[in-house]
């Protein structure tokens, strides 16, 4: 199967997380595209050793943060597509989330509720690009393409600055949650 475009006035974000077989490291990745299949942004980033399900959640949160840093987001709704049914079930019903992940799930829910986002399960065969990017998670890479006029006016330095800020906040949140779990 191939990528299916979102409805008009929607932007589609395909996301995935991946872990090494031995669980020692992983990556997150995703693409944000218009209904005309124009890629606004794609990214991949390494993550520490975590459960694979957390990699999926981190990828969703990262992509949502990235999308709302774009100027083009003012005119569009976001469709988030993932090949992980469990994370999507937790987002649609946060009380079903295990005690290890409520803060990240709730932070996704808070943003999605206020922005009227749509979450959708897709099979891996329709999420190959995001999966490949997650597997490439060897460093922060961000490409803002000139596919949309708003992006030509948008400073890539600003996006990279926001990514660094988000990464620092995410790292701090992970360490605080890790500390709480071991108290």
Q: Please give the domain count.
A: 1
Strand percentage lies at: 15-25%
CATH-defined fold name: Nucleotidyltransferase, domain 5
Mean pLDDT, all residues: 76
The DSSP helix count reads 6
Strand tally is: 6
Q: In CATH terms, what is the architecture?
A: 2-Layer Sandwich
Q: In order across it, which strands form the biggest sheet?
A: 5-4-1-2-3-6
Biggest pleated sheet: 6 strands, mixed
Low-confidence stretches: 138-160
For the terminal residues, how far apart are their CA atoms?
47 Å
Share of residues in helices: 40-55%
* Name given to the CATH homologous superfamily: Ribonuclease H-like superfamily/Ribonuclease H
Question: Radius of gyration over alpha carbons?
Answer: 16 Å
CATH class: Alpha Beta
N-to-C series of helices and strands: EEEHEHHEHEHH
Envelope shape: globular
Structure description:
The protein starts with 9 loop residues before the first strand and ends with a helix. By secondary structure, the chain is α/β, with parallel strands linked by helices. It has a six-stranded mixed beta sheet, sandwiched between helices. It has one domain (10-181): Nucleotidyltransferase, domain 5, CATH 3.30.420.10. Helix 1 (52-67) runs parallel beside helix 3 (102-115) and helix 2 (85-92) crosses helix 3 (102-115). 42% of the residues lie in helices and 22% in strands. The chain has six helices and six strands.
């Amino acid at each position: 199967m191939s990528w299916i475009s979102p409805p008009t006035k929607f932007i589609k974000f395909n996301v995935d997380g991946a872990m090494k077989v031995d669980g020692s490291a992983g990556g997150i990745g995703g693409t944000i595209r218009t209904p005309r299949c124009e890629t606004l942004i794609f990214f991949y980033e390494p993550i520490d050793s975590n459960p694979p399900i957390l990699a999926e959640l981190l990828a969703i949160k990262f992509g949502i943060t990235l999308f709302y840093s774009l100027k083009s987001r003012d005119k569009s709704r976001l469709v988030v597509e993932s090949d992980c049914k469990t994370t999507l079930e937790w987002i649609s019903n946060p009380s079903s989330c295990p005690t290890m992940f409520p803060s990240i799930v709730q932070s996704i829910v808070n943003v999605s509720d206020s922005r009227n986002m749509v979450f959708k399960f897709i099979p891996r065969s329709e999420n190959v690009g995001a999966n490949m990017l997650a597997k490439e998670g060897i460093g922060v890479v961000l490409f803002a393409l000139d596919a949309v006029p708003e992006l030509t006016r948008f400073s890539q330095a600003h996006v990279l600055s926001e990514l660094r800020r988000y990464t620092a906040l995410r790292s701090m949140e992970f360490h605080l949650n890790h500390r709480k779990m071991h108290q």
